[in-house]
Structures are given as C-alpha cells and as structure tokens.
C-alpha cells in the first residue's frame, strides 16, 4: 500500500519556471548497461555498453521554441491503476536526406525502444523511457510537410511516445548536461 510521505513546497517567487525544452538526446534502450538511482528516484549515473558500436546518446537538434514534453497521468476509476503517456513533439526545419536517414533509424529502433534525456529551459535535466519493456518509440504524429505556398514552412514534426507506469515518469538526471554519455 502506498502512502504520502511529503508535501509540495509550492510556488517560490525566486523560481524560474520557463517553459519548453532546450535540447534533446536519444539512445537505443539496449545500449544502456546499468542505471544508478538516488534515494528520490533521480538518475545519478548511467553506464553504456561498450562497443563496437559503443552506446551513446545522440543529440537531436530541433527548432527553438518547438519542443515540448507532455506527461498525461491516466487513472482508473477506482484509483488503483495509474499509467502515464509521455508525448514529446518538436519541429526540424527543411527536410533533407539526413532527416530521412534519422527518421528511418528511429522508426526501425522503435520496436526495441529508446531512452531520452532532455534539458528544459528552466534548467531541469530529465530522463525517461528507462522502464524495461516500456521504452520510448516513434509516435504517429511524426510527419514531413513541404507546405503548399512559398511562404509555408518546409518542416518535419517529430513525435516520440512512451506508455509507461507511474515509476516511469520523467526523473531528474543529476549529472546534468555535462554527464550525458555522447
């Protein structure tokens, strides 16, 4: 049986709560050898498999102010079942052959799954997709769009999705951006 053991401190006027995601990194879920957790469930270290090819997180560069992660808690009527749907969306400008290759690799990896680290504009560095058999995959909202008019954007919308349990909610990656194995 669960129990509440702490409250939420609430709003602090000195806290910066900027929205959006600044940067994003992906890895093949199978390339993570071990995960070390702290007492509050934060990830304090990741060891990647040694290669070849060695496991690394790859940065995915997307347009500024287009990246967002939404975590939707889904609760059964009796309150005993909780799942989370995590949906990341971001936009890459100008479809290219490199974009095509990236999308094909992400699509092919979706069966085995991925893990994601992201840096929020607020400074929080989060990680998700770590629960065995519940990894991140390419979402159906991924699309390429040429636009119809000369002034329309030529862009790619990337959607990543993870259906997970409550423990799979994004958690802090305490090594931060400098600790990402790239």
Structure, briefly:
With 182 residues, the chain is mainly beta. 7% of the residues lie in helices and 39% in strands. It has one domain (21-177).
**Annotation, overall tally of beta strands:** 12
Low-confidence stretches: none
Query: Describe the biggest sheet?
Result: 5 strands, antiparallel
Give, in spatial order, the strands making up the sheet with the most strands: 4-1-7-8-12
- Portion in helices: under 10%
* Tally of discrete structural domains: 1
Structure description:
The protein is mainly β and 182 residues long. The protein has one domain. 7% of the residues lie in helices and 39% in strands. The chain has one helix at 97-109, and strands at residues 21-28, 32-37, 43-48, 58-59, 68-75, 82-93, 114-120, 125-128, 137-138, 143-145, 155-165, 171-172. The strands form three sheets. Strands 4-1-7-8-12 form a five-stranded antiparallel sheet, with no helix packed on it. Strands 5, 6, 9, 10 and 11 form a five-stranded antiparallel sheet that branches. Strands 2-3 form a two-stranded antiparallel ribbon. Strand 7 (114-120) and strand 8 (125-128) form a beta hairpin. The longest helix is centred in the middle third of the chain and has 13 residues, at 97-109. The chain starts with 20 loop residues before the first strand and ends in a 10-residue tail after the last strand. The mean pLDDT is 93.
């Amino acid at each position: 049986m669960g129990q509440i053991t702490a409250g939420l401190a609430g709003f602090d006027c000195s806290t910066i709560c900027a929205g959006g995601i600044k940067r994003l990194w992906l890895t093949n879920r199978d390339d993570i050898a071990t995960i070390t957790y702290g007492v509050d469930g934060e990830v304090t270290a990741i060891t990647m498999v040694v290669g070849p090819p060695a496991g690394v997180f790859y940065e995915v560069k997307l347009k500024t102010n287009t990246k967002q992660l939404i975590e939707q808690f889904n609760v059964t009527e009796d309150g005993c079942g909780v799942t989370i749907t995590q949906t990341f969306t971001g936009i890459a400008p100008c479809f290219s052959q490199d974009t095509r290759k990236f999308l094909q690799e992400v699509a092919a990896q979706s069966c085995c799954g991925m893990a994601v680290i992201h840096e929020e504009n607020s400074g929080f560095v989060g990680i998700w997709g770590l629960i065995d058999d519940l990894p991140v995959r390419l979402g159906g909202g991924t699309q390429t769009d040429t636009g119809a008019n000369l002034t329309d954007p030529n862009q790619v919308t990337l959607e990543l999705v993870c259906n997970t349990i409550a423990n799979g909610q994004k958690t802090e990656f305490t090594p931060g951006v400098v600790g990402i194995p790239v």
